[in-house]
Amino acid sequence: MVDWRGKNPGIDSRGMGSCIKFVFQPGEEIGRGAMELVKEDHVLENPKVDMAFAAHGWPTVESGKIGIARRYAFGCVGAFAVEIIGKKGHASWPEQTIDPIAVANEVYQHIPAILARKISGTDSGIMSVTYMQAGVEKIKNVIPQICKFGGTMRTTKRETMEKMAVELKNELRAICEVYGATYKSDIKIHGGAVENSPILLDQVREAAGEILGQEQSYIIEGDNLGGENFSEYSNRVPAVYMFIGIKPKDKAEIPGLHSPIYQFDDGVLANASSVFAMLGYQGCMGMLENS
Amino acid sequence: MVDWRGKNPGIDSRGMGSCIKFVFQPGEEIGRGAMELVKEDHVLENPKVDMAFAAHGWPTVESGKIGIARRYAFGCVGAFAVEIIGKKGHASWPEQTIDPIAVANEVYQHIPAILARKISGTDSGIMSVTYMQAGVEKIKNVIPQICKFGGTMRTTKRETMEKMAVELKNELRAICEVYGATYKSDIKIHGGAVENSPILLDQVREAAGEILGQEQSYIIEGDNLGGENFSEYSNRVPAVYMFIGIKPKDKAEIPGLHSPIYQFDDGVLANASSVFAMLGYQGCMGMLENS
């Protein structure tokens, strides 16, 4: 949302001269679209964008309500892929091999210590190993050459994620040295967190409340560490990301994000669009303070 | 080798009336042939077999020599295959999942404790995990449903292996309970160890020495925990299993067993066959004491 009135003090009371940019977010799941729009298409400039809003259908928020994270709507996302290279051999003489599964499992076992011993207990942090691949099921008497594993890292602060990456490499280097193995690692930091603007937060909750009823819009105190490359906008301009409820009242739980049976409750679209319209109106009318 | 003279005291001095059975060992690599020959074909009966000999080309024994294990030429062999069943979910919310990789790695981490804490330090024991399969490399944000792992168990005593199997199941049950996971396990004991007859041992070494030169046949003090279903014979009659050297003198090391580039030194065949012929002669002539 772009308000030109800063440059044009004589703007009329209908907000004429302000404008709203609608952004289609391409390549979100691979984390690449937003950066392209910012760097290549200069979407935040000419005219300069003053604040940004986004929303996502959210399976843990009740239909008809909108939840807004107090601080982090999404986390900083990283990924790691590791290949431990050992020395293949007969499983009856492990001492003649360098067992890459042993190395990988020892690294795995130390990963929680990165979170518990190397970063502050008040920082958010998740490291999940989501695959581990070594050997084949039908060969039970050969220790394989290679064990691959990897997964995701999440936190709220980029410097915490950088620390995680450094510590994971330290661990790999040290444990491979113990075993005489080698490794390859590919550790990527995909993007920053989506931190909701503390200044805009209550204003947005109230604006949403005007559409939905005040008790229907609420602040979610906990951080959420999913990933969202809307961070490329929210790291540059004050922004608020809303969670639009899609869980029908009569259901205790519905399928989560990325589930093949994800259920979107179409009934919430009219109200959710109205909230955006309201924010657009208020923004253009100078009713939202962003600094 | 079968000596009928026990039943026929009047046998002549040329050993007539004794006989030698040559056994082709089918299905050795899948551990099933010998048992069939014993149970179905009654190979050890009619006439009853008094002692048995076997040999294997051996890449760590020098060509021209024969090594004979003091006790265990091969170990008792078992295999385990485990499937940990967790609850799939998004890797950013591990608390909503039951992570089967975490369970499998914790079981893995405890396996050495079975050897070090649950069986005697004077027992031989090896447990090697040779495969671990969970998730897929390109999916880094989903904790998978299942982690499979398995491998081989080796020891010299069947009761030790039975203990290993029981302890592995205890571990699986306890660790799965901690995580709320379930598991399937398939633990098989394939066969017993090949224990060389202490009575025949020196006699065989000496007989081999008569062919090769006495310094060329020797006793290997350490046990070997490879697998060999010749155990079906050696567990029923006194037996000696020989390791026929195939490592050329000028090489420090040659490819191991089951290597795709395993090298058999054909030059050793004549002498090795002669050793068998000598044992046949001595056995039939009553020159080998088996009890």
TrEMBL record, chains A, B:
Keywords recorded for this protein, A-Z: Hydrolase
One function term, GO molecular function aspect: hydrolase activity
Residues in Peptidase M20 dimerisation domain copies: 80-176
Signal peptide bounds: none
SUPFAM superfamilies according to UniProt: Bacterial exopeptidase dimerisation domain, Zn-dependent exopeptidases
Transmembrane annotation, as ranges: none
This protein's name: Amidohydrolase
Matches recorded under InterPro entries: Amidohydrolase, Bact_exopeptidase_dim_dom, Peptidase_M20, Peptidase_M20_dimer
Pfam families (alphabetical): M20_dimer, Peptidase_M20
Organism of derivation: Dorea formicigenerans
